[in-house]
Design brief:
Blueprint: H1 15-27, H2 34-47, E1 51-55, H3 58-68, E2 76-80, H4 86-93, E3 97-101, H5 111-114, E4 122-125, H6 137-146, E5 150-154, E6 162-163, E7 166-167, E8 174-178, E9 191-195, H7 198-207, H8 241-272, E10 278-279, E11 287-288, E12 294-298, H9 307-316, H10 332-338, H11 346-352, E13 355-358, H12 366-382, E14 393-394, E15 399-400
Parallel strand pairs: 2-3, 2-4, 4-5, 5-8
Antiparallel strand pairs: 1-9, 6-7, 6-11, 8-9, 10-12, 12-13, 14-15
Helix pairs in contact: 1-8, 2-8, 3-4, 3-7, 8-12
Bound molecules: pyridoxal-5'-phosphate.
């Protein structure tokens, strides 16, 4: 057993980020300035998007997206229940109503769940690319288009993910990314909005900085003017050059980070697939999963311990875990305000039961990865339900009958 606690998540920050931050501190440009501009340009290029607007969080990105699309009181916005609370909270902040949808396979929002919830008041849908895997966007976009509804993507987990070869960032009217400390790339706190709509980009940029007329940040440069006009009461959501200093280098390292995350996920898949007690995440057809989260589910009735017990056992073995997410409909505010009952969300309830996330981040060494595997398999071996009937390889038929069998190649 390892003798040092392995945190669920730690960022990978190198000397490049540190030196760049120091450079900003020495330069005197500590708020929005030239590095934010450069970070926006490089991010837009990476995502293949026309416009990128840097902000101080993904929460702000989602809030500004809704605001810029005119969402307000009386409007309904469909959000999946398997998400972080920010996705729905920002709808509330604008006086609109979040309508919480059940999810389909792999915890992802799909058109089937959205369709029955559409009303004359529905103005937007926020698909969440849960765990780092894109939703089935073709169907969602088609349904939204037919009904004149905006699609605003929550890509907090999905920087670098792709949908049928297209990088996430251009499919919806806006796409919101997170650079929170645990996300696939980080600026400490931070976010980005991408959009193909140039006019919307101007509006988003203005709303992010007090509603002031264009290039407000240039007021303090040589060529800038003291004059500005407030076009509407905007917000204070701008990113600083200190954050962008980190972002510039994190972005350059991102493909390497993703490769490492995918490598760890593949190692976990290989090690866990012979354990029928666990249901493993799957990469769906046409997706590039970036494994922001590697979430497994304990299958019912196979172990003598539940999720809480499993997590406690892992902690005793010095392995940190997390749960992504407690479904929105279970949180007191949403449950009590809108009277949601668990029965309305059968897929999410099934998905949530036994769900927890394992550490799987670039800063982990190969030894850390093996420690996680040893701890998880050790807990399973020690807590198997005695009634479990283990179905092995049916050699005569040449077929693997175990759950997850589709993932096993005959050797
Ligand atoms: C992290 C997260 C957010 C919020 O991101 P911040 O940058 O912390 O505001 C929004 N949605 C989802 C799905 C998230 O996981």
């Amino acid at each position: 057993m390892r003798n040092q606690f392995l945190a669920y998540s730690l960022p990978q920050i190198g000397e490049e980020e540190i030196n760049e931050v120091v450079d900003s501190l020495r330069s005197g440009w500590v708020t929005t300035g030239p590095k934010v501009k450069r970070f926006e340009a490089e991010f837009a290029h990476y995502a293949g998007a026309r416009n990128a607007i840097a902000v101080n969080s993904c929460t702000a990105a989602l809030h500004l997206s809704l605001k810029a699309c005119g969402i307000g009181p009386g409007d309904e916005v469909i959000v999946p229940t398997m998400t972080f609370c920010a996705t729905a909270n920002v709808v509330e902040h604008l006086g609109a109503k979040p309508v919480i949808a059940d999810v389909g396979s792999e915890g992802l929002l799909d058109a089937e769940a959205v369709y029955p919830l559409l009303t004359a008041r529905t103005r937007a849908i926020i698909p969440v690319h849960f765990a780092g895997q894109a939703c089935e966007m073709h169907d969602l976009l088609e349904l939204a288009h037919c009904r004149g509804v905006q699609v605003l993507e929550d890509a907090a987990h999905a920087v670098g993910a792709a949908y049928h070869g297209t990088p996430i960032g251009t499919l919806g009217r806006t796409t919101s990314f997170s650079f929170y400390a645990t996300k696939n790339m980080t600026t400490g706190e931070g976010g980005m909005i991408t959009t193909e709509d140039d006019q919307l980009a101007v509006l988003l940029r203005r709303l992010a900085l007090h509603g002031m007329s264009r290039d407000a940040w240039k007021r303090y440069t040589e060529t800038g003017s003291w004059y500005y006009e407030v076009m509407e009461p905007g917000y204070k959501d701008n990113m600083t050059d200190i954050q962008a200093s980190m972002g510039l280098h994190q972005l350059r390292k991102l493909d390497g980070f993703i490769q490492r995350r995918r490598g760890i996920a593949a190692r976990f898949d290989a090690a866990f697939r012979r354990y029928e007690e666990l249901q493993l995440p799957e990469e769906l057809p046409g997706r590039r999963h970036v494994y922001h989260v590697y979430a497994v589910r304990i299958r019912e009735g196979r172990l003598r311990i539940d999720r809480t017990g499993f997590i406690d056992e892992l902690r005793k073995r010095n392995i940190g875990t997390s749960v992504h997410f407690i479904p929105l409909h279970r949180h007191p505010y949403y449950r009590d305000t809108y009277g949601y009952r668990p029965e309305q969300f059968p897929n999410a309830e099934h998905f949530f039961k036994g769900l927890f996330s394992l550490p799987a981040y670039p800063r982990m060494t190969d030894e850390d990865v093996e420690d996680v595997i040893a701890a998880v398999t050790g807990v399973i071996e020690n807590h198997r339900a005695s009634t479990t009937v283990r179905v092995g390889l049916d050699v005569a038929a040449g077929v693997d009958l175990r759950p997850n069998a589709e993932r096993v190649l005959p050797s």
